[in-house]
TrEMBL record:
GO terms for cellular component: plasma membrane. Residues 19-33 have a biased composition (Low complexity). Residues 79-458 form the Major facilitator superfamily (MFS) profile domain. Residues 1-65 are annotated as: Disordered. This is MFS transporter. The chain crosses the membrane at residues 115-136, 143-160, 166-184, 205-226, 232-255, 276-295, 320-340, 347-366, 372-392, 404-422, 434-452. InterPro entries: MFS, MFS_dom, MFS_trans_sf. Keywords: Membrane, Transmembrane, Transmembrane helix. The keyword Amino-acid biosynthesis does not apply. Residues 1-11 have a biased composition (Pro residues). It comes from Phreatobacter cathodiphilus.
Length: 463
């Protein structure tokens, strides 16, 4: 009888011997999805498996399936509803600042340049502080910071109602802006934690509350503040108190959820993209945010003046036209996240920026009805971009949800503020009609989407 062949060399625990010539190799080597071969015995503690350190000069991305949320996690719609409701209340208070521009212009004899500066202080405060707040809370999460942020907004509203000079208007705008800076990064993190893996849907539900609040601001100004005067702004401080109560409850849930997650094994290391590609992608996303928010600022800050100048409508009717546009933003925001979850973030980014170009080019030449229809279409299509951009960026730089959220929310606010100031000066020099002709070309920046890397897992085609 011929001798039996020698047994293959015994592999260490967690290693496979199915490589060439029976040489032992890690069980995950050659795996297309980076997961451990389930046929092999695993060590008692999965977290004890060695993971290679990322190469020097590389960022990690969340494209690995090992970073997917556990199957037991489910979407917490109650928490998302609470966050969305508070986002609505927060942005109603914020939008009152912009909706009050015509009233403040008349009461304080302001010119467009001063209106632009007021918008710049409001948006710039939020822009500067949001990334810093996000960076700090990434390292030191603050479950109850959202309620504290609402206190700043409450103080700003009361001061706005009783401002005796333009300087106090600027201070009031800064306080409301700082309240927003505290609110957005940590609430965005909570929305992601409550998503159950449906990150686009969670961000859309969270952000649609903000868009709805922004849309309700002009209605509140038209039916409450215009008939009763600037002092009636103080009534809306009740909204801040209600939000503080809700956010205290949400903060308790957040603290419990973090404690539960701390007891889980650490997730496996995600895959990596080179640092240069990540920086380039963040730069492209920033330019897309620039095009989106400068154009949206041209409507949110100056649409009422444009409507009154071009079509001779009343202040109240111009506020209703602004409400149509802002309501369209809410619809687009709600649609953008689920579409991104289904078809991919880049698909939404392509369509939402570049797809508005035909409508923005037509807007300066449209009549009253056409203007209302076109601004509604622009609002729906353009608003679908932000949740896709934000989730894409979070997946590009995982583990920095607060910083990325603060960076992009802050950059959006900053671009809105700078855009308002610059467009105000242009309107003073060239006229309000010229502003809308100039801004109609901004969606061309959407062509830069071609330079974004593919960081998402392939999606199965529908049957």
């Amino acid at each position: 009888m011929p001798p039996s062949p020698p047994a293959p060399p015994r592999a260490p625990c967690g290693w496979s011997t199915d490589g060439p010539a029976g040489a032992p190799r890690p069980a995950h080597a050659g795996s297309r999805r980076g997961s451990i071969d389930r046929r092999q015995r695993l060590p008692p503690n999965r977290a004890s498996l060695p993971h290679p350190l990322p190469p020097r000069g590389a960022f990690v991305t969340s494209t690995s399936v090992d970073t997917a949320p556990p199957a037991v996690d489910r979407t917490s719609f109650g928490i998302l509803a609470a966050l969305s409701t508070c986002h609505l209340l927060n942005d109603v208070m914020q939008s009152l600042v912009a909706a009050l521009y015509p009233v403040l212009k008349a009461n304080y004899a302001l010119d467009f340049g001063q209106i632009g500066l007021l918008a710049f202080v409001f948006s710039g405060t939020a822009s500067l502080f949001q990334p810093l707040v996000g960076l700090y809370t990434d390292r030191h999460p603050q479950p109850y910071s959202l309620a504290v942020g609402m206190g700043f907004s409450l103080t700003g509203l009361i001061l706005l109602a009783n401002a005796g000079s333009y300087a106090f208007l600027l201070l009031a705008a800064a306080l409301v802006g700082f309240g927003s800076a505290v609110f957005h990064p940590e609430s965005s993190r909570m929305a992601r934690m409550a998503s159950g893996g449906r990150h686009g849907l969670a961000q859309s539900l969270f952000q649609v509350g903000g868009n709805a609040g922004t849309a309700l601001g002009p209605i509140a100004a038209a039916f409450v503040i215009l008939p009763r005067g600037q002092q009636s702004v103080a009534w809306f401080a009740v909204l801040a108190l209600a939000a503080m109560v809700i956010l205290t409850k949400v903060g308790g849930w957040y603290a419990e959820r973090r404690a539960a997650q701390a007891s889980r094994p650490a997730p496996a290391k995600p895959t990596m993209l080179p640092r240069r590609r990540v920086i380039a992608a963040i730069g492209v996303l920033s330019l897309l945010i620039f095009s989106k928010y400068v154009y949206m600022t041209s409507l949110s800050s100056y649409y009422t003046f444009y409507a009154m100048h071009r079509f001779g409508v009343s202040v109240r009717d111009s506020q209703l036209m602004l409400f149509v546009f802002l309501g369209a933003l809410a619809v687009g925001t709600l649609l953008g996240g689920p579409i991104g979850d289904r078809f991919g973030r880049k698909v939404v980014i392509w369509g939402s920026i570049l797809g508005t170009l035909p409508f923005t080019l037509a807007l300066p030449y449209a009549g009253l009805t056409g203007t209302i229809v076109l601004t509604a279409i622009i609002g729906v299509v353009m608003a679908s971009a932000f949740s896709a951009i934000l989730v894409y960026a979070q997946e590009l730089v995982p583990g920095k949800v607060g910083m990325i959220s603060g960076l992009f929310f802050g950059f959006a606010f900053g671009m809105g503020g700078i855009g308002a100031a610059v467009l105000g000066q242009i309107a003073d020099a060239k006229g309000i009609d010229y502003v809308y002709w100039l801004c109609s070309f901004l969606p061309l920046i959407g062509l830069l989407t071609i330079f974004l890397p593919d960081v998402e897992k392939p999606r199965a085609r529908p049957a």
